[in-house]
Amino acid sequence: MGTQAFAGRAAVAGIGMTALTRRSGRAELELAVEACRAACADAGLRPGDVDAMLSYHLGDSAPVVQVARALGVERLGWHNDIAGGGTQAASILGDAAMLIHAGLARHVLIYRALNGRSGRRMNTVSTGPQERLTYGLAGPIPLFALAATRYLHETGLTEEHLHAVVAQSRENAKHNPRALRREPLDLAGYLARSYVATPLRTVDCCQETDGACALLVSGELDGPRVRAVVRGGGPGCSSMDRAADVSAIFSAYVAPMLWDASGLRPADVDVMLPYDAYSWLVPRQLEDFGLVAREELGDYLLERHHTWVNPHGGLLSEGYVHGLNNVAQAVRELRAGRHEVALVTGFGGSYGSAALLTA
Fold first, then answer.
1. Which of 125, 128, 188, 223 has the most CB atoms less than 10 A away?
2. Distance (Å, whole) CA 358 – CA 33
């Protein structure tokens, strides 16, 4: 693929978030507007300075034109409501960077808003293809639990390793005031939690929350730079009837593309913000992106060497804004000077995206 033409041309100059709750009592439009105003203010811009807007959703958010009108954006340029969920969390940065590189926009406002707990919930039968019901796959959790079972068998990882992922997520979230889950979770407490679908317990699954997150991507302002973005996938845990490996998630396909597009290596990444919809996705992505070898995963997790993964708690502990809150945290980490290269990902089963941001 080679280095992408837009590499380094766009910066994430502003971030904004609402409080994350289990019942917002507010419409998605109101949530989106609050987060967007905060992102613009963080970048030092007025909403009227924005000349492009992007969002992604699954029929559960406020449309771009409505948010633009509420913000007072009188002359809206390129805009798009992208159909899709977690796969878009990283790749929407590429959409914004391409608009800037093409000269179609100077400042691109990105947002994701949803009432994911009090409104439409993702982890229900209605969110998946109905033909899966024939096989007892009633919603996304049973589907990805089946893939997890195979992955644990192949790697030799156990419930103790899944606990290490969840417990470290809680530990990382302990000092994050936005996080909804900050209490410690020992192994006994983990094992006492009920299963949703084996091997996934309730705490192995990301939260369902209400809230909104926004990013202001600019071709003129400073901030962490968009170095590379890739999107793709193949037969795997979203299409098990066609897959040689039902545990193969998006990272198995996009990781080689990312290193080719960026000119960087796994060793260059010093903070990782993976889409942790389920606990087993953390070791799978560490392996796929070449950050930890498969044979080293067990000790790596049990010895808690993954403290650098989702330092805010991720989707498991901070909250769930369809992955965009992980991107916002990557910006915070790079701004603070704690890290130089951040890897963020977007998961949708065997399809998804990844991006590298540089300080």
1. 223
2. 28
Per DSSP, helices labelled H in 263-342 are 281-288, 297-302, 314-317, 324-335
Confidence tier at 238 by pLDDT (50, 70, 90): confident
CA 345 vs CA 187, 275, 304: distances in Å: 28, 6, 21
Q: In what order do the strands lie in the sheet with 52-57?
A: 78-83, 52-57, 107-115, 210-218, 11-17, 225-233, 351-358, 341-347, 271-273
Number of C-alpha atoms within 13 angstroms, CB side, residue 184?
Answer: 3
Task: Please report which helix (H) or strand (E) contains residue 22, including its range.
Answer: none
CA distance 22 to 43: 28
| Residue partners of 48: CB distance under 8 A and separation at least 6 | 72, 73, 74
Residue 66 to residue 314: CA distance in whole angstroms: 29
Q: Return phi, psi of residue 150, to 5°.
A: -65, -40
Contact 306, 166 (CB under 8 A): no
Tokens found for residue 156: 């030799």
pLDDT of residue 286: 98
Residues labelled catalytic: 275, 320
Report pLDDT for 240. Answer: 83
Query: Distance between CA atoms of 143 and 327, rounded to whole angstroms?
Result: 26
Rounded to two decimals, the pTM is 0.95
Alpha-carbon Rg for the chain in angstroms: 19
pLDDT tens per residue across span 121-146? 565 544 555 545 545 666 789 999 99
Per-residue pLDDT tens for 5-43? 999 999 999 999 999 999 989 999 999 999 999 999 999
In one-letter notation, the amino acid at residue 331 is V
Distance CA 228, CA 91 (A): 10
146's CB contacts (< 8 A; 6+ apart) are 137, 197, 237, 240, 246
